[in-house]
């Protein structure tokens, strides 16, 4: 006999007390009256099958008949709804199953099981996969995608500290999803990582990598190997990392395709995060171009130039790469966070939603759209570069105390570039038209933001909400950007930056129209006949779409110092662009560096390379081919880099 834990509690209470009221049972099981009535109805329906009956007399319930089977009934394990969804997904990936299998395993009705499958199917669709129903239920996805789904399921239900202690008996017994996996693999991976003495990797990243290794061992044991058609090109650092782990796995044998797959995941999660792509052996130009497209599309549709913010490209790249690597499954699409973003930033949320679907050609969960929209919102609120606003403060108080208040306001809201203070007697409608935000310390009728004069900014949350609503219905006023240069007073930075500036040049190259021949002519021009470097140039070169530019970059022992040059080609060449489409280029941006490059030079070249990819205005300047203008741009980039450089 199978009963739920709550049904067994009801049976035990009725047998112990002989008869009980609804109020008594509510105290015992602690659920709503409606849920209790449903449980009682279930007992009335199936108890006769075991020689007993649930009787109701004068609002009291009792059980009559053979009670011998009731006290020793097998209690079904209870599962939370989201927990059930994750477990069902894992089981669907592990094997082909039927609807009745889930009904029996989780003790649920057919409508509930069917609804679970509908939710799972929707989530699979968001990740670009599907669910087959004919001849049994089965997840239709590549092995690469299945492993991502498995790791996402584990990651969503384990904290980082729990991942580091998967051999702990209590953690294993308390996690029903974890119990679907082979425990020996958990111990092997934990031991291998601990023996490998890994440095310079965050606990969170290492935790996720441990899950990828564990899932790889699980799938290899199930004879589900990674597909051979993937042309993984992991970095040497990633290969060394994985080789060290595999050597410490003990009896587990890992073949070369699996090592390449795991190395690729190490690159994605660790070695490719941020930094300077110039010195990497692999760089996903297509992904980076899509991130740039996202920024440009949102900027165009919102009328706000988000590209002026230097942080947003790196933040979006990191977030989206993480999202694609570990999708958030079964997220609550109606939570307060999503509602707040939709309500306070309605237009921006909708623009981001449409742009994501248009550029990446997949569906995104509302939670993910809200998080990405939040990056754009944060850009508006952390500086005045994208949407500078000016403000007016109407008061009847003294200028000294109000001057302190305005500085406090500008600290809280950095996008406010200036605050003019006037007395109430100076107020007129014409004056109001010149300001984006109107603050006041007085009780004045009008669409003003009321603030306290005690400098506490106690109503900060309400002020923030009101300012966001104002920004939703306004466009930035035209303002002249402050182009003040920062003084370079750090000698090492100055000397190394001057080397790059002094070596910058623009040359004409009498080249062949063939791409491979042009590469050879270019390295011969620079006296860099290094065959490894030549092949690297061929494999890593890419064009910048919608321009005449191509970027060639690399490192070599033959390069003596970091250099950036531009080559104007006599004959245009055909090159594959960042968007994977062929394009014509007649101007080459050429960046090279020694194999061992110092931190400062690496940082400066990283800023130059980022400016080529991330900033549309800078790309236009590079396209001009004008030495003086490009030189001034490089000086500006280096100057701005110095102010942010923290050695």
Automatic annotation (TrEMBL):
HTH deoR-type domain boundaries: 3-76
Coiled-coil spans in chain: none
PROSITE patterns registered for this protein in UniProt: HTH_DEOR_2, PRD_2, PTS_EIIA_TYPE_2
Residue ranges of domain PRD in the record: 282-386
Gene3D superfamilies, per database record: Mannitol-specific EII, Chain A, PRD domain, Winged helix-like DNA-binding domain superfamily/Winged helix DNA-binding domain
Claim: Repeat is one of the keywords in the record: yes
Transmembrane among keywords: no
One Pfam family, short name: HTH_11
GO molecular function, a single term: DNA-binding transcription factor activity
Residue ranges constituting the PTS EIIA type-2 domain according to the UniProt record: 486-637
Highest rank taxon of the organism: Bacteria
Protein name as annotated: LysR family transcriptional regulator
Signal peptide: none
Keywords noted in UniProt: Repeat, Transcription, Transcription regulation
Gene: mtlR
């Amino acid at each position: 006999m199978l009963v739920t834990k709550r049904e067994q509690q009801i049976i035990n209470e009725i047998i112990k007390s002989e008869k009980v009221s609804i109020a008594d049972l509510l105290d015992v099981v602690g659920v709503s009256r409606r849920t209790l009535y449903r449980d009682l109805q279930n007992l009335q329906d199936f108890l006769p099958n075991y020689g007993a009956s649930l009787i109701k007399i004068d609002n009291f319930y009792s059980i009559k008949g053979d009670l011998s089977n009731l006290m020793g009934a097998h209690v079904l394990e209870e599962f939370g709804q989201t927990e059930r969804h994750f477990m069902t997904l894992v089981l669907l990936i592990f094997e082909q199953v039927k609807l009745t299998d889930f009904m029996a395993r989780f003790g649920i009705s057919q409508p509930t099981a069917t609804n679970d499958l509908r939710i799972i199917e929707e989530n699979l669709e968001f990740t670009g996969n599907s669910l087959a129903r004919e001849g049994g239920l089965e997840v239709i996805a590549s092995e690469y995608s299945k492993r991502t789904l498995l790791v996402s399921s584990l990651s969503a239900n384990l904290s980082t500290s729990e991942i580091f202690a998967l051999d702990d008996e209590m953690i294993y017994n308390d996690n029903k999803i974890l119990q679907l996996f082979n425990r020996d693999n958990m111990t092997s991976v934990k031991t291998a990582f601990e023996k490998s003495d890994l440095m310079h990797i965050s606990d969170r990243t290492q935790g996720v990598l441990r899950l990828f290794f564990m899932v790889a061992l699980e799938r290899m044991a199930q004879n589900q190997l990674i597909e051979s058609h993937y042309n993984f090109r992991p970095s040497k650092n990633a290969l060394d990392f994985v080789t060290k782990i595999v050597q410490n796995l003990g009896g587990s044998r890992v073949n070369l395709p699996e090592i390449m797959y795991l190395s690729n995941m190490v690159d994605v999660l660790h070695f490719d995060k941020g930094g300077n792509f110039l010195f990497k052996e692999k760089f996903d130009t297509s992904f980076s171009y899509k991130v740039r497209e996202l920024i440009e599309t949102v900027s165009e549709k919102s009328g706000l130039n988000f590209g002026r913010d230097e942080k947003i490209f790196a933040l979006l790249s990191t977030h989206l790469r993480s999202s694609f690597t570990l999708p958030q499954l079964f997220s609550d699409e109606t939570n307060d966070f999503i509602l707040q973003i939709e309500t306070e930033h309605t237009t921006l949320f909708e623009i981001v939603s449409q742009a994501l679907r248009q550029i990446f050609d997949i569906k995104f969960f509302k939670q993910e759209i809200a998080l990405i929209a939040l990056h754009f919102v944060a850009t508006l609120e952390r500086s005045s570069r994208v949407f500078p606003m000016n403000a007016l403060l109407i008061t009847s108080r003294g200028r000294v105390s109000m001057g302190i208040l305005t500085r406090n306001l500008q600290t809280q809201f950095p996008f406010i570039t200036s605050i003019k203070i006037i007395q109430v007697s100076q107020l007129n409608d014409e004056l109001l038209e010149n300001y984006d935000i109107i603050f006041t310390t007085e009780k004045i009728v009008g669409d003003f933001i009321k603030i306290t004069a005690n400098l506490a900014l106690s109503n900060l949350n309400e002020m923030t909400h009101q300012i966001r609503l104002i920004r939703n219905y306004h466009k930035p006023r035209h303002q002249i950007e402050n182009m003040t240069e920062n003084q370079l007073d750090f000698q090492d930075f100055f000397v190394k930056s001057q080397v790059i500036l002094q070596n910058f040049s623009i040359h004409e190259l009498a080249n062949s129209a063939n791409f491979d021949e042009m590469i050879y002519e270019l390295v011969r021009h620079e006296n860099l006949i290094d065959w490894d470097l030549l092949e690297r140039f061929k494999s890593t070169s890419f064009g910048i779409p919608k321009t005449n530019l191509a970027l060639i970059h690399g490192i070599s022992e033959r390069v003596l110092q970091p250099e950036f040059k531009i080559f104007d080609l006599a004959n245009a060449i055909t090159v594959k662009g960042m968007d994977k489409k062929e394009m014509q280029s007649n101007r080459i941006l050429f960046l090279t560096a020694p194999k061992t490059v110092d931190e400062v030079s690496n940082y400066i070249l990283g800023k130059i390379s980022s400016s080529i990819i991330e900033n549309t205005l800078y790309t236009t300047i590079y396209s001009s081919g004008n030495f003086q203008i490009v030189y001034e741009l490089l000086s500006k980039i280096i100057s701005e880099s110095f102010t942010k450089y923290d050695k």
